[in-house]
Amino acid sequence: MKKYILTSLVICQIAFVKAQIPVVLDTIYANDTKNVALFFPEPIRQGITGSDNFVFTFNREKEQYLGLLQAKPGKESNLLVINENGAIFSYIVKYKAKLSKLNYFISESSSIGNENRITEDTSEIEVIPKVPLSKRQYYERFCSYLLGQKHNNTLKRKRNNGVVLSLENLVFDKEELYVVVEIKNNSSMDYDLNFLNLSVETRQKGKRKSLQRIYKEPLYRHRLPAKINEGTTERLVYVIPKFSISDERRVVLELNEKNGERDIKLKIPHRIINNPN
After folding, report:
1. What is the total count of domains within the chain?
2. Is residue 229 a part of any domain in this protein?
3. Which of 131, 164, 180 is the last residue of a domain?
4. Whole-model pTM?
């Protein structure tokens, strides 16, 4: 009995020491002339970089273990990758003009955790079957996660009389596109929101030039405000079905003021829409 108690105490002390050791993230270097290949132990479900001067691409249509990283000169950032089995990998990413390593083979042991939070020792723990999240619950959770991320580089911005509409981020996950928007009211008057619409605009060629606009109905709106008070900023997310557009089309994010004239039409080119994070 004493031996069992002593062994338990040693195990607890080891676990406590491990919990106190900070996780040191490995650094991956990349540049804008070569592709740095990352091979993961399981197919990649999601990959997000913390800054726009880093681009991480992978096959979103078909499960693949390979991801490609490129970088432009700028400050260091981070890369977060989640595999299909829920394993989470996190790295510091830096720009480097000359690369000494172009291929990284990631082992399962380098994972910093699992989003399912299943403990390794389950001998005395009752395992509760995982209940699938409803679509709305998943959207809400992922939108909250995106709003918790900081992005230094705005993708697109336009202003009108002290009101600034910004496309902050564009993220692809599963079958949906997450549009992260920021509305900043630097004016001395409150801004009453009438609507915020997203549509695809096609320029018709020929002698009679015209514009055809197709409205994209969001599957879910996260934290859409009715009013932006003076001197405040609101951030929100629209979830829409995935799509891509040709170079003859563009997306228009239209902000309309109720009983006012501070309307904004933010035009987003195809290159941004077709290259989400």
Report:
1. 2
2. yes
3. 131
4. 0.56
CATH at residue 84: 2.60.40
Note down the domain range covering 121.
23-131
**Short-list 250, 240, 273, 167, CA closest to 201:** 250
Q: Are 65 and 44 in contact (CB under 8 A)?
A: yes
User: What token pair was written down for 117?
Assistant: 């939070």
- In this structure, the answer to whether residues 161 and 204 fall within a common structural domain is yes
Q: Which residue has the higher pLDDT, 13 or 220?
A: 220
Cα angle value 240/243/245 (rounded, 5°): 130
Mark whether 122 and 29 lie in a shared domain: yes
The Cβ-side half-sphere exposure at 58, using a 13 Å CA radius, reads 28
Answer yes or no: is 34 within a domain.
Answer: yes
Residue 98 has pLDDT above 90, yes or no: yes
According to DSSP, the residues that pair with 202 across neighbouring strands are 212, 249
Share of the chain above pLDDT 90, in %: 54
Q: Average pLDDT, stretch 88-112?
A: 91
What is the average pLDDT value for the chain, to the nearest integer? Answer: 83
Alpha-helical (H) ranges within 148-275 are: 270-273
CA gap 195, 197 in Å, rounded: 6
The pLDDT tens digits of the residues spanning 237-252 come to 999 999 989 888 999 9
Residue from 201, 181, 205 nearest 270 by CA: 201
